[in-house]
Amino acid sequence: MGRQGSRAARSVIWILLVTFSCIFLVPFAWLLLTAFKPEAQMFAPPTTLEYWIPRPATMENFIGAFSQKQFRFPLFLANSLLLCELCVIGTVLSSSLVAYGFSRVEWPGRNILFFIMLSTMMLPGQVTMIPVFMIYRKLHWINTFRPLVVPSFLGSAFFVFLLRQFFMTVPEDLLDAARIDGCSEFGIWRKVMLPLSKPALATVALFTFMGTWNDFMGPLIYLLDEERYTLSLGLAMFRGQYNSEYGQLMAVSAIMTVPIVILFFFTQKTFIQGIKLTGIKG
Question: What is the pLDDT of residue 85?
Answer without folding.
Answer: 95
